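User: Can you fold this complex?
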Amino acid sequence: MSASDLGTHDVFATGDAEILDRGYRSYDGERRGVRGAVWAVVRHSVQRALGMRRTLWAKLLPIFAAGIAYVPAVVFVGIVALFKSDEATQFVLPTYAEYYGFIIAALVVFAAIVAPEVLCTDRRSGMLGVYLASPLDRDTYLLAKAAAIAFVLSIGCLGPPLLMLVANVLQSQGPKGASDIALTAVRILGSGLLITLLFTGITMGVASLTDRKAIAAAGVLLVILVTIMVAGTLSTTGGTNSVLAIAPTLLTIELAARVHGEYSTIMPGAPSAIIWLAWAVWTVGGFTLARIQLHRLPVTR
Amino acid sequence: MTTTGPVLPPEPMVAVDGVSKWFGDVVAVSDVTFSIGPGVTALLGPNGAGKSTLLRMLCGLTPPARGEVRILGVDPRTNLAVRSRIGIVPQQEAMFEALDAFGFVRLAGILHGVADPDAAARGALGLVELDPDEPRKVTTYSKGMKQRVKVAQALVNDPEVLFLDEPLTGLDPRQRNHLIDLFARLGAQGRCVLVSSHVLDEVERFGSRVLVVAQGRLAATGDFRAIRDLMDDHPHRIRVRTDRPRALAVELVAKPGVTAVELEPPSGTRAGGVVVETTDAGAFRRSVARSACTVHAALWEVTPLDDDLDSVFRYLVQQ
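Assistant: Here's the predicted assembly.
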């Protein structure tokens, strides 16, 4: 390829002069206000969390973590395709609620990666001040970040059960009839959304305590592990299994079972009010902590 | 009957198209596009603007993260043969301590595959007014002498394209004048000479063709006077010294294109004057004498205050 093929010419041959960049100029284009700013933050945060428009290394971890959540679903879909017999599939396949028991570890790891990447980076790089110099205030900024985190987490929380539903329906192994399919879909969406919001709240709350991604990720894992230990100890010593709702991982499986109307081996007999209260405490508490931390931060605005 | 097609501009010797370079999160060069041919062109920009990074990409020493670089029509990264047609004066001082000037320049000639490296080295050292028979090692040289050795090693292979990164650093005024003349001669011979500098009076002496780089971006290209004329957001400031400044100011302020007029009081032996801001310097210059006649004022001085490279650079770079 010759230089002329590049479509360039010697700018000095014809005596041309050009000013290509005048530096700062006022913006005369469309101003989309708070909605536009929120959408921009959501979009860029999702890209950031998934490593989009970045190097391969930035993509590997989130894709790997989310991918693990899909592996059991892919395996089960394969089983459904291979074994047509109802008896065989009912013996092997988990229910949509039980599926979360297979992937809970992957979901925890995925959630521990996403929120720190979305929240901590802005504080560390100084972008938070830039965002707050836009039409966004601290609450709309947090709302946008929460939407982005929830969207990304829903990839792991909602995707695999939906994939199983589609495969089951196509293989005639799943719910029969439009109403059953619709009901199952609504339950999958409902449980998935609840679990997404649960992990969004928890991880946002923990990530708001530091501007270092690694520490925030470790903090999320620590919260998960410690709560399991505490819940287990309390349950063993106190004799009631309702206290297991303290542990988000166990709460996740129990929530899914309750939404799908299935019997759970985690907290059978625990009042639903306890389950919903635990969900609300973790979710709303996490969001509230994130909001308090953000409002306490000294930023330009 | 013969027909001739359109006269195409000569193919550029250096062509850069959409070139960017980043190091992690730091964008050193951002979407730069230009092409240059024979003659001397100055690459102008403040410290940290990306000049050296751009030069390294032009020399093929580092690949662009995005975009294409063509030197004499080929990619200098993949076509090693074109490097023997390029001369480079790097900013860094890195010389083989065990060699004298002749040995160092001769080695450069050998590396370039020059047919007679001895003669080429003597010739190159002569161009920069260094004694090829000087036995001292280059490490004992002064900064100016080392700089001239670097220039000599860039010229030993009789290059068609020369990239000079701060070539006059450490030179005394006489040596500077000599090298400036040398570069101008090389440019007049049809070579493409690209000189990178942030010293404006040095750049101005190379000629009027500039590429201005700021914060990794190409801010402007062309003759700096023509660039100044394009800056319609910065009216030209012109000082007019006269015996009747007030009367002349009244006359000038009504002229089309004049945006502001300021009276300068007399200072010591200097007469008072009028500083005019105008968006059309050419029209103003053509009309100022007539305006002075109208008010019976004597014109002693008409001086542009910001038509120099320093002003162009300030307006482009400072934000």
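Residues 1-8 of chain B have pLDDT under 50 and may be disordered. Chain B has two domains: 14-228, 231-306.
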